[in-house]
Amino acid sequence: MTTTTPDVHYLNHEKGFKSWFWTLDHKRLGVMYMWSVIAAFILGGIFALLVRMELMEPNGYVLENAALYGFSDKLSAADLYNHFFTLHGAIMVFLVIIPGIPAALGNFALPMMLGAKDVAYPKLNRFSYHLWLTGAIFFVMALVTKGLDTGWTFYAPYSTSHSDSAVIWATMGAFILGFSSIFTGLNMLVTIHKMRPDGMTWFKMPLFIWAIYATAVIQILATPVIGIALLMLTVERTLGVGIFDPALGGDPVLFEHIFWFYSHPAVYVMILPAMGVVSELIANFSRKPIFGYRSIAFSSVAIAIFSFIVWGHHMFVSGQSDIVNVVFSALTFSVAVPSAIKVFNWVATLYKGSISLDTPMWYALSVIWLFGIGGLTGLWLGTLGTDIHLHDTYFVVAHFHFVMVGSAIFSFIGGIFYWWPKMFGVMYSEGISKLGCAIAFIGFNMTFLPQFVAGSHGMPRRYFDYDPQFEVYNYWSSIGAMVLGVGLSIALYALVRSLMGERKPAPANPWGAVTLDWQCTSPPPPHNFDHAPPVDGPYDHELVRWNDELNGYEPVDPVDGDPNLARMGSAKTV
Amino acid sequence: MTEHAHDSHDDHHGLGHVLPVKLLAGVLGALIFLTLLTVLTGTTYLYGFDLAVALLIATTKATLVCVIFMHLKWDKGFHAFAFIGSVLFVGVFLAYTLTDTKQYQDQIRDYAADTAIDSPFAQPLPDPPADHHHAAGEEHAAGEEHAEGDEDNH
Amino acid sequence: MTTASADAHGHHGDHGHDHPEHLAHHFDTLEQQFDSCKLGMWAFLLTEVLFFSGLFVAYATLRANNPEIFSLAASFLDTKWGAINTVVLLVSSFTAAMSVRNAQLGETSKLKRNLLITLVCAGAFMCIKYVEYSHKYHVGLLPPGMEHSMFNPETPYIPHGDHTGEYLELQAHTADMTPAERVHTMTTLGRFFGVYFFLTGLHGVHVLIGMGVIGWVLMRANRGEFGPDNFTAVDLVALYWHLVDLVWIFLFPLLYLIH
Ligand code: HEM
Ligand SMILES: [Cu+2]
Questions:
Q1: Cβ contacts of residue C219 below 8 Å, gap of 6+?
Q2: Does the CA dihedral A14-A19-A20-A25 come out positive or negative?
Q3: Nearest to B54 among C64, C246, C257 (CB)
Q4: Nearest ligand to the CA atom of A404
């Protein structure tokens, strides 16, 4: 018996645009989210490359060729630069990283990991996706009308009273995207609470589910605050309520409080699901029960809670008072502890594991390195004394790119490579994929490591020209960005290629994972499971064994002799 | 099934708990009473405890609504836990911002005092214009504009 | 039952238990469905609490720094209307809770009556708000960025005719102040009204949304859809409505009753 793709599956049981656009199927929604996020990522990436090109030389590289763009003077070139980095940041944050893993991979995999037919509220799920699309349209409107030059942080009073770019399109877009994120989180939370199959107690859930759960808590509790912050900003801009604008007696620091009350937890909306993906990958490609399961699970929840009490570390030099500065600085360290726990556990899982270096694992290992650097540099920034020096320099830029791109995006891509066979029932070329990963990894480090140096030497962020002493760092950074772009393009090529020409069908379980998502065919049938398969621990790798004919793993103790739909997790109960 | 069968406290009917009419009406009575009370306390001088008393009464009312009207007493404990949790997060939010804002108020006041002279409110508020007429010597454009707009309405 | 043949439509049949009418395909039991809906609604209410929190923070910081000006500002709000509106909302909350009971017991006609009363109360609340708002508009007690606001720092609006009461009071109150004090008083009052309109406006929007969903539930009740195993929609709408009430329970003393 060799691997074949099932005749009827979720991708082909209905056809046509409408069947996708109005679908209630979590898998289809997940796939659509994934492609939409990738499209937004490409758009954001173009702006990133424009920014890096401009910074390649101290006096600019791109924008100064003004004639090309119809900009006659340096000032409008500088202005354009503000638009570039703002659109880059806003698109990447609101359209890419926040929905990336929870909405795309979470939607696709989570209900299957629970052995469920769908999420708890399929209609709300579809609504979330449509909200995402609406938010994206608002962003595009901002882009094509007057652009956006406030920075992704929308600081008042520039955003409320001075910028004449399309602030309202963008804030309303982000508002809508916020609700898309809230509804996704709400759906995941309820699904996890109420739709676990018999036998899956809280501590038998795969760690990805724990991560999505913790993320959902943040999405529900923090995201409404950005909603209200942006609404207040919009109303301030239109009606002048005087909450933020000092010209009306308002208090701009208050905006920063409200903004960061969300936006610090939001960085954990980005990283927690990524950590969940990495936990799955490390455990499954080491073929070992994950080390310290409970501590990883608890640390997700701890991060979710601590993340609400440290936001002021973004405001050390914004006029925040000394007392509050000190308290926030001290508390910031609390959030590093659970983050570190996870990294230690991953490393301990690798130890004496039987590691197979498939593409997803390459990404997972990259993330350990990249998150190590990103997380540790966060501590320097959280230290009040050093942050006074480092704030608003390239050091911060490098820090958050290591965590948001190096960790969150790399995990996202790793997750895509992991679930790709399940999504589309095809295997990609390992060679090309690994090449893409390697080039992206090198390019990434080349882009952002020099920025730490430039930043600690005092190069400020968000400037379009800079002192010649920083040239060497910026030069290599820009070259690195192109290398990164090449690496990511190769990764995308590997994925797209696997769908074209001669497809290589994927087995139900190519990686030997024992979570329930690998217990239906690749691609899954429209309703996943008729009955939830019973479960045991998510990381009992003894329950499956390699089968050459299948070119994948099969259960040691199959039910009804059917290797495709066997109960790997339940060898004892059957 | 008659309605009477359900008028006891711990009755479970189908999926949820049915609340007796008397209880609901009692809560409504208490809420209205507390509203009158807060109007009373809110309009008398309470030696600086006005805000505390007002918040205490409001919290009591809110608790009644949550516990009885919203069925929290009979509902899953997790719902109450989560709701209280969210209120605690709001507390954290308030505590930090209030501590912080107190600290830098002086700076804001200094700044405001320095720039006060540019404000129209630096002068005593002018007398309102006489209605319907553009009396000579009206200095305030905004007032005047409105007077014109107003005339159209008559 | 291999996967390939698990088709989209045939799977309902092979469940061991019958699938009740109101049960969506992806749930196993009515209880699971009901519990999920409740949990989801509560999660949404948490979101609402945090959503309002941003404005409460703005309110609290402003008030903490300017207690005297806040009591002056509150004296321009009409406690009578505020109190009446509070009672109106409380009554509507009561009838909403009653509707849940009626739905649980399958008392359709009482259910319809109670939902209707809830809806009427919500409407009354909005009418009263309209009266209050339009008064504030005429006398110029508006957020400072608005043209028609007496707190506008560019060209303050000066009311006239029958609408000068509040203005004259303020004129007298600020007459003997130093310029800095007067500027501070006027800008802070402006911000108070900014926050006032924002808070009550956002609450009002919630009332309007509530009227929409109550109307929707009323329509369904009219079709006789609710009964002992199917009252979830009534329950959830009532929960939402209670939250709208909760917010107002705090807004009333915080805005109208400052001494
Ligand atoms: C491991 C614990 C972490 C610590 C202690 C930490 C600490 C900090 C601090 C103190 C800052 C402010 C620096 C400044 O502006 O001067 C900062 C900025 C930032 N961090 Fe982290 N961080 C951590 C992890 C993360 C993670 C996981 C992410 C995202 C996935 C992240 C994303 C960001 C972003 C986006 C900024 C800059 C925002 C901006 O100003 O535009 N951080 N971090
Ligand atoms: Cu942070």
A1: none
A2: negative
A3: C257
A4: 1
Nearest CA to CA, how far is A145 from chain C (Å)? 25
With CB atoms and an 8 Å threshold, state whether B108 touches A308: no
Cα–Cα dist C222/A62, whole Å = 66
Which residues 173-202 on chain A approach chain B with CB closer than 8 angstroms? 193
Give the distance (Å) from ligand 2 centre to CA of residue A471: 29
Report the complex ipTM. Answer: 0.91
**Letter for the amino acid at A485?**
G
- Give the pLDDT mean for A315-344: 91
| CB proximity list for A378: less than 8 A, separation 6 or greater | A332, A336, A399, A403
Instruction: Cis check for the bond before A523: say yes or no (omega within 30 of 0).
Output: yes
Kindly state the tokens that stand for C102. 């009626």
Region of A16 please: left (phi>0), alpha (psi -120 to 50) or beta: left
Nearest CA in chain C to A7: C4
- Which token pair is A503? 């497809």
Rounded to a whole number of angstroms, the distance between the first and last alpha carbons of chain A is: 24
Write the secondary structure of A115-168 as one string of H (helix), E (strand) and C (coil). Answer: CCCCCCCHHHHHHHHHHHHHHHHHHHHHHHCCCCCCCCCCCCCHHHHHCCCCHH
Give the pLDDT score at B131.
64
d(CA C208, CA C203): 9
- B118-132, pLDDT tens digit by residue? 888 888 888 888 765
Contacts of B132 in chain C (CB under 8 A): 161
- Tokens 């929840």, residue located: A301
| β pairing state of A544-547 and B16-17 | unpaired
Taking an 8 Å cut-off on Cβ atoms, the answer to whether B112 and A249 are in contact is: yes
pLDDT of A449 > 60? The answer is yes
Domains of chain C (ranges, CATH numbers): 28-152+161-169+188-257 (1.20.120.80)
B48 touches chain C (CB under 8 A): no
Separation CA B120–CA A392 (nearest Å):
37
Question: In testing the pocket of ligand 1, which one of A390, A396, A407 has its CB within 8 Å of the most ligand atoms?
Answer: A396
Report the alpha-carbon distance of residue C80 to residue C86 in Å, rounded: 10
Report the range out of A3-17, A326-340, A395-409 with the highest average pLDDT. A395-409
Query: What is the percentage of chain A residues whose pLDDT exceeds 70?
Result: 94
Question: Please, what are the domains in chain A?
Answer: 17-568 (1.20.210.10)
pTM of the model: 0.91
Q: Which of B39, B44, B70 sits opposite C83 (nearest CB)?
A: B39
Q: Which amino acid is at A522?
A: S
pLDDT, one tens digit per residue, over A157-200 is 999 989 988 999 999 999 999 999 999 999 999 999 999 988 89
* DSSP characters over B96-133: HHHHHHHHHHHHHHHHHHHHGGGSGGGSPPPPPPPTTS
